[in-house]
């Protein structure tokens, strides 16, 4: 993917969503820089399962940026009454856990490109931030410069 003048290659692993495969899934997300945790917008229990995975990721991979992804948004376009997971509730939850939220459809492609673009852009920002702190170290007595500040709040 292109981010500015850089090309970023994403390695993507699709892990099983069932808690039953918890231990096996760990093998896949160990060391992951980003996780897209999906739930079905028409099924409230799937959002509960998504929260389980968020907890799991947060406890095992602190540095992993989380993206919440509501799926099947095309079904809501057809009939709004099919929505079972409230957008604002998830947005509040996303803010709490410092995640970003996308509502997507693999059928129509809605917001899919935007989601992966954001993953790549955030990765580049965080990598730039790490290079900067590795090169120069961090002077805790110094006021944060704007670049440093914006990276931390991505
Ligand atoms: N209408 C609609 N159906 C979808 C969409 N995405 C997936 N589906 C349907 O939902 C069902 C499950 O899709 P999967 O892609 O297997 O879901 P999954 O989350 O990968 O399932 P696991 O591998 O069991 O974790 C299939 O019948 C898909 O056709 C979507 O965006 N819109």
TrEMBL record:
**Name of the protein in its database record:** RAB24, member RAS onco family
User: Source organism's superkingdom?
Assistant: Eukaryota
Keyword vocabulary terms for this entry: GTP-binding, Nucleotide-binding
**NCBIfam families, sorted:** small_GTP
> Origin organism of this chain?
Rhinopithecus roxellana
**Which GO CC terms are listed, alphabetically?**
autophagosome membrane; cytosol; perinuclear region of cytoplasm; spindle
> One MF term in GO for this entry?
GTP binding
Its Gene Ontology biological processes? attachment of spindle microtubules to kinetochore; autophagy; meiotic nuclear division; oocyte maturation
Q: Is GTP-binding among this UniProt entry's keywords?
A: yes
Could you tell me which PANTHER family the record lists for this protein? Answer: PTHR47978
Q: What is stated as this protein's family in its record? A: Belongs to the small GTPase superfamily. Rab family.
Instruction: Show the Pfam families listed in the entry.
Output: Ras
For this protein, the record's InterPro entries field holds:
P-loop_NTPase, Small_GTP-bd, Small_GTPase
The region annotated as signal peptide is none
